[in-house]
Design a protein that fits this description.
Helix content: over 70%
Structural class: mainly alpha
Oligomer: single chain
Strand content: under 5%
């Protein structure tokens, strides 16, 4: 019971920090401005971890590995903790356990990335209906644009309604089924 409660708290903390780190990574990768409430929050929340790592871990092809690596390592820590609480570490030989844990953490990081995309698409859809000129709408649109553009080229608007966020969410959920 205590182990389950501890695991729950670890999941909540690592999940929140993983989302923040991945949001920082994608905001930098897609050249989204950090001069807004979300950007400032993400930078303030993650600077203690990202700034020291930047000295030792340079970017690669313009990607901020100092934001991506801690997100992955957090998922690895959570995977190891969950596996040890469930008692399934003893069932695997040590030689095959490490690659399995590394792979599971990678899949968990990818799942978090997809959840982040779905969340951004939902926020964008709601903002487009409720408050299209909100200060948050521009950064969210910049974050989702690389995913929506290919769909918008194929699927036309129907009655002045853009269906590309809905299609992107369905495709993202379909991808989650395979991860």
């Amino acid at each position: 019971m205590v182990a389950q409660a501890g695991l729950f708290l670890l999941q909540a903390l690592t999940g929140f920090l993983t989302f923040a780190l991945l949001l920082r990574f994608y905001m930098q990768a897609f050249r989204v401005s950090f001069n807004n409430q979300v950007g400032t929050f993400v930078v303030d929340l993650t600077n203690w971890l990202v700034k020291p790592l930047r000295k030792a871990l340079p970017g690669l092809f313009g990607l901020d590995l100092a934001s991506l690596l801690p997100a992955y390592l957090l998922q690895l820590i959570l995977t190891v903790a969950a596996t040890s609480v469930q008692g399934s570490m003893e069932a695997w030989p040590a030689a095959s356990l490490l690659p399995l844990l590394l792979w599971s953490a990678l899949l968990a990081t990818l799942r978090f990335s997809i959840y982040l995309l779905i969340g951004a698409l939902l926020v964008q859809a709601v903002l487009s209906w409720v408050s299209p000129y909100s200060p948050l709408s521009q950064p969210v649109a910049q974050l989702t644009r690389p995913f929506l553009r290919p769909i918008q080229r194929v699927v036309p608007t129907v009655g002045a309604i853009d269906l590309s966020p809905l299609i992107a969410i369905v495709l993202a959920q379909l991808l989650l089924m395979f991860l």
